[in-house]
Amino acid sequence: MRNKFLYTIALVFMLASCRKVNVDFSYEPASPNAGEKVEFTNLSTGGEEWVWDFGNNKTATTTSSSIVYEQAGTYLVTLREAKSGKQCIKSIEVGSPEPYLYCTQDEIYMFKPVILKIKTYNPYDHFLAFEWFSNSGMRIISNSFDTDSVEVIFTKAGEVTVEADVMTDEELTNLSETFTVINTPAPALLMQTSDDKRYFQRFYGEYMEDMREVDYERGHGILDTTNQQLTATDPMERKVYTGSSDGLTVSNSDGGQQVRIAEGNIRTIAVSTALNRIFFATSNGVYSLPLIHTYNNLTDQEPQRINYVSNISRINIDNTSF
Fold it and tell me: Which domain holds residue 158?
C-alpha cells in the first residue's frame, strides 16, 4: 500500500512538472526582408532541451537563435521542448528587399565629386541592369551610366533629386532619392549686359556652374567700377591680350610675338591669373582660354564657350569666395 501511495505521489509531481512547461518565442524585426538577420528569442518557461525548425530546412538546438532567410516567402517556425514534446508554431512573412540609392559620403558639396550607389539583394546572381539619369542639379562624370555606382558632381545647392532605374528578370524599378547639397563659394566671372542686367558664373577647377543673375550688392559694386576694356595684361607672364573686331591677340609686353588666338568681334575682355584664364565676350556668347605661358605665344587650345549671352558689355573677376 505504501509503495502504491509513493508511486501516486511521484506520478502527480511528474505530471505537474510537465504542465509547467510553456513554450513561446518572439522574433525581431517584425517584418524582416530576405538577406536580413532575424533574431529568435525563447520566451518559454520550464523545459530544458530545445529544438528550432525555421521552416527552410535549417534547425538549431540553442535556447535562442538567429537566421538569415535568403528568399522571400512565408515560413512556419517551430520551437519544441524535447523532453515534454510541447511546441509553439508561428508563421513569419519574409519580404523581398527593395533596391535603394545612396551616397557614400555623409556631406555633399557643389562640384565636389562623390560616388552614388544602388544597393540590391541578389543572392543567386540574377540578371540586373542599371541606368542613371543626369538632371539640372547633377551631372554624371563617370564613363558609364549602366553600372550600380557612378561618380557625379552636384551643380547646384539645396535639395537635388537623383533618379535611376534597376531592371531585373521580372520587373523595372525606378529609384528616386533627394540629397541636400551644400553651397560652396568659389571665384566668379561677373558680367553686365548692354541693358544693365548683371550675372555671375562661378568656377570650380575644371567645372563651372550655370550663369545666374546677381541678386545682391556685392556683384553690382564690382561691376560699377569696371570699364569696358579691350586690353588686359598678365603681369606674371608679361603678356598683353588685346581684343578688337578682328579677334583676340596675345603678345609679349614688348609688343613682339603677336599671335591671334581667337576670332570674332571682341566686345570686352578680362584676365584672371588666379583661374589661369582669359575671358572675352562676343556677339555669340562669353568664351575663355587658358593663359599663354610660352615665349612664342603659340597654343593648340580652342576657346571654350561658357555661356550664350550675346550682349555682354563689361566683365570682371571676383577671385575671392563669391
Answer: 100-182
